[in-house]
Design a protein that fits this description.
By secondary structure, this protein is an alpha/beta fold. It has a single domain, classed as Rossmann fold (3-Layer(aba) Sandwich), CATH 3.40.50. The chain is built from eight helices and seven strands; from the N terminus they run E-H-E-H-E-H-E-H-E-H-E-H-H-H-E. Strand 5, helix 5 and strand 6 form a beta-alpha-beta unit. Helix 4 packs parallel to helix 5. Keywords: Oxidoreductase.
Length: 253
């Protein structure tokens, strides 16, 4: 299926690995010009090199940036727009804050977590969406977490911050829909990423035990869904928060 994305320009945050890398790979395969960011220059440049090898002619631009602060998040989008000539597609993403429960998590840990998983989303949208509205076309896809629907024990910081981001994204979607800009979020459950391996002690089979599908997710499949939400065909999908979790979320709605 031709997704109608060839020649579009995308800024994909935290794409040195994991689900961000998978999203950048899927978009580049569709002919999208891509800028990616991360904090580790060597890891980021290696990721860009892999993407350039897989999609010849699609120059992927690595931008060293820390989206853990609103300034760093906005700076990434501005640098991506400079490198690409504009940003038509924004994929927001960031690593997760440290694990902990109510008793073990101090109050002063919440500010950095909110910056990482809420304010980074706000800042990137502030930097990218106004130009999308002027052009009457744009796509925002936020990578959040299944924790916004079904809080995960010992991830109280992530549960809190990502739920706030979901409220922001839904509100933004309603405000910009008439301008040809869609805003959606994907709520990944357990996928075969470095973060899951760290949280599970490398036990991916154990991580899959409670998943109805009987396995953890493939980042490549997740990336394909990101690309579809950016497509011409998905132009009537906005304001959605879509679980991608093998059935792990048990609620009806």
């Amino acid at each position: 299926m031709d997704l109608g994305l060839s020649g579009r320009r995308a800024a994909v945050a935290a794409a040195g690995g994991g689900l961000g890398f998978a999203a950048a790979r899927a978009l580049a395969a569709e002919g999208v010009q891509v800028a990616i960011c991360g904090r580790d220059r060597d890891r980021l440049e290696a990721a860009a090199g892999r993407l350039n090898e897989e999609a010849p002619g699609q120059a992927v631009h690595p931008v060293v940036a820390d989206v853990g602060t609103p300034e760093g998040a906005a700076g990434f989008v501005h640098e991506a727009a400079r490198a690409l000539g504009g940003v038509d597609i924004l994929v927001t993403n960031a690593g997760g804050p440290p694990p902990g429960d109510f008793d073990s998590t101090p109050v002063d840990a919440y500010g950095p977590a909110l910056d990482l998983n809420l304010m980074s989303v706000v800042a990137m949208c502030k930097a990218a969406v106004p130009a999308m509205r002027e052009r009457r076309w744009g796509r925002v896809v936020a990578i959040t977490s299944i924790t916004v629907r079904q809080p995960i024990p010992r991830l109280i910081l992530s549960n809190t911050a990502r739920a706030g981001a979901t409220g922001f994204l839904k509100t933004l979607a309603l405000e910009v829909a008439a301008d040809g800009v869609t805003v959606n979020s994907l709520l990944p459950g357990s996928h075969a990423t470095e973060r899951l391996r760290a949280l599970s002690g490398g036990d991916l089979e154990g991580a899959a035990a409670e998943i109805p599908a009987g396995r953890v997710g493939d980042p490549g499949d997740f990336g394909a869904l990101v690309a579809f939400l950016c497509s011409r065909q998905a132009g009537f999908v906005t304001g959605s928060a879509i679980p991608v979790d093998g059935g792990e979320y048990r609620g009806l709605l």
